[in-house]
Amino acid sequence: MIENKSEVSIGEKKSNFSVYFTEFRKILIQILVTFFALFLCLTPFAKKIYTFLTLPLQHKLPAHAHMIATDITSTFIAPFKLVFFVVLALLVPFIFFKLYSFIKSALFINEKKVFFLFFPLSIFLFYSGVGLGYFTILPTVLNFFIGMAPEAVIPMTDINEYLMFCIKFFLILGLVFQLPLLILILVYFHIIPIETLTNQRKYIFVGCFFVAMFITPPDILSMGIAALFMYLLFELGIILSKIVIRITKKQ
């Protein structure tokens, strides 16, 4: 009898694993199919998308300067590489939603609430960081680097190098813009009391300038803009934490 029960238990575990594996494979196929479909849709616009990315640089380059390709394949590969990253960025919400649909049956109600609170906020902050970086911070950074070139040097940026610079730049900004979410998580899970954060404002303000020294060009304008943005993100995290605390107390 005991052997029969153990055999049934093992059989159930194998059956459950098979079901989960089949469901996960189905989700993975859906993600890959969606990725390639969107990639194919955007491929005809690869050059236009890359041109859009280079607009901040083109506006800052001297009249006699232009971009170059040091590799014969760069003119072909760089635009499609950019499309790959654009599609990946656009699919992040879809990917996480599909993964959530896979694990939601194992989550408690409060864990589902946390997911629906934190995940959309994280996506919004990431996209906001990228958008703000493209329209405001990137032109300032490019203007600094180009302005630092000696008079005898003509800035001519390689298209692939510029692409990788922008990818790293936007990724860093997207992560920096997660600061409000980090503060919200620390307060929500009672890791750090909100009173401690509010009482340390002046030290955090100074800390923002200290961090800005390492992530921005060494000019006062770029450093000040970065520090100001980080401090505003900190204050946004405090405001969101207070709102969530009030909602939690009412419930």
Automatic annotation (TrEMBL):
Q: Where in the cell is it found?
A: Cell membrane; Membrane
Parts forming coiled coils: none
Q: Name one GO molecular function term.
A: proton motive force dependent protein transmembrane transporter activity
Give any Pfam family that matches: TatC
Which cellular components does GO assign to this protein? Answer: TAT protein transport complex
The UniProt keywords, alphabetically, are: Cell membrane, Membrane, Protein transport, Translocation, Transmembrane, Transmembrane helix, Transport
The record lists the membrane-crossing segments as 27-46, 82-103, 115-142, 162-191, 203-220, 226-245
Per the record, membrane topology reads: Multi-pass membrane protein
* Similarity comment: family membership: Belongs to the TatC family.
Query: Assembly state and interactors?
Result: The Tat system comprises two distinct complexes: a TatABC complex, containing multiple copies of TatA, TatB and TatC subunits, and a separate TatA complex, containing only TatA subunits. Substrates initially bind to the TatABC complex, which probably triggers association of the separate TatA complex to form the active translocon.
State what this protein does.
Answer: Part of the twin-arginine translocation (Tat) system that transports large folded proteins containing a characteristic twin-arginine motif in their signal peptide across membranes. Together with TatB, TatC is part of a receptor directly interacting with Tat signal peptides.
The name this protein carries in UniProt is Sec-independent protein translocase protein TatC
Q: Which organism is it from?
A: Acinetobacter shaoyimingii
Classification of source organism: Bacteria, Pseudomonadati, Pseudomonadota, Gammaproteobacteria, Moraxellales
